[in-house]
Specification:
Length: 386
């Protein structure tokens, strides 16, 4: 269709909003408490200016990079997000899109598709895990990921027990029984395109999380897995070191916001860290990760790979993050809106939008490679780091 292409992530979001039932869309945009951190994740990028040159730009712009041993066509990684009920193909569509664009796929342990199928669609898959359950169950999840061919592990620690949403977060159903589905009929009927996709696929949205259990065992319900996580004491840095040892491969610790903890991640054996506040779904009032990035990158960027996630919506955001010391960014909501809008093609579209934006900014800044970017290319307010 002539109008199927969207030229920005903002347009993808608008299309997703028009297509998705209100509760499904609401789950995508929810942030902790009053949404201060979630809002700052995006707003912080707007405070950074760029300093383009007038003539003498490079005719070639190189965007390739490597994170945890995986070569990528551009410095963008698919962040792991759970239960992608925005489209029947869910993580499989995202994995195929990422593979087609040469970027790494992050798969959540709360995902709706089995890791074996996702790795088959994209061999460059990092499996994400929470500190949840006893050590035997943690080992079982890691062993399953290894057997499936996952090429890296993401240990997510930037998610605490914050549930409140001042504007009212949509309630996630406890089950998908007929009476539950009946309650959602009114909002679904006014979004027939979304409903038709699921009917055509012969499915109904599922809250099963197959990657939370060993292969061959029944997939637990989202809330059963969530309850396991809630009932598990917080991880210590000794626990992080244990995960690194048990995994035996590249490990990223996600949720770093302080220089001292970045150093602890190095000591624990991590190959990479993600500066993150869980998309504004952790403790509200946490500064945007892009504000915290410069100090962390300056302190440890020569010892560990530094990735940042939160609020990335444009290629210019990616360029700003790299100029401040990140090796790559992770995207979450951006690709979910693309998935909702147009399935695999929508995710590919989002990745293309980011790629074109990176290229345009490199051209304007006179850079032949993303690796030439530095803080000197930006206008940084004195109080940017808060």
């Amino acid at each position: 269709m002539a109008n199927s292409w969207f030229e920005s992530v903002a347009v993808a979001q608008r299309r997703a909003k028009r297509k998705l039932p209100r509760s499904v869309y609401g789950a995508l945009i929810a942030g902790a408490e009053r949404g201060q951190s979630m809002s700052d994740n995006e707003a912080a990028f707007t405070e950074l200016g760029v300093l383009p040159i007038t003539a003498g730009q490079s005719p070639l712009r190189e965007m390739a990079t490597e994170v945890m041993g995986q070569s990528m066509s551009m410095p963008v990684i698919i962040a792991p997000t759970g239960v992608q009920a925005v489209h029947p193909d869910g993580e499989l569509a995202v994995a195929r899109a990422a593979a087609g664009r040469g970027v790494v796929m992050g798969l959540s342990s709360f995902a709706s598709k089995p890791i074996e199928d996702v790795v088959a669609a994209n061999p460059q898959t990092f499996f994400q895990i929470y500190w949840a359950g006893d050590r035997d169950s943690m080992i079982a999840r890691m062993e399953r990921a290894k057997a499936a061919g996952a090429c890296g592990l993401i240990l997510t620690l930037d998610w605490s027990f914050v549930h409140s949403r001042d504007w009212g977060s949509p309630q996630i159903p406890q089950d998908m029984k007929p009476i539950t589905l009946l309650k959602h009929v009114p909002e679904t009927l006014i979004r027939p395109a979304w409903l038709f996709e699921w009917l055509r696929a012969g499915q109904i949205p599922s809250l099963a999380v197959p990657n939370f259990s060993p292969i061959g065992e029944p997939a637990p319900h989202f809330f059963d897995a969530y309850g396991t996580w809630l009932g598990t004491g917080p991880a210590t840095w000794a626990d992080v070191a244990w995960v690194a040892e048990q995994w035996g491969g590249p490990l990223m610790v996600k949720g770093i916001g302080r220089v001292d903890e970045a150093r602890r991640a190095i000591d624990a054996g991590a190959a990479a860290i993600s500066v993150s506040n869980h998309g504004g779904n952790n403790i509200d009032g946490t500064p945007a990760p892009i504000r915290l990035l410069p100090a962390i990158a300056e302190a440890v960027g020569d010892q560990i790979e530094v990735v940042v996630d939160g609020g990335v919506r444009r290629g210019s955001d990616v360029v700003k993050a790299l100029a401040l010391g990140a090796r790559a960014v992770m995207i979450g909501r951006a690709y979910l809106w693309g998935l909702a809008a147009a399935g695999q093609a929508g995710v590919e579209n989002v990745l293309d939008v980011l790629q074109l934006g990176i290229d345009s900014n490199l051209l304007g800044l006179g850079k032949s490679s993303i690796h030439e970017l530095s803080p000197d290319d930006l206008i940084i307010p004195d109080d940017f780091g808060r």
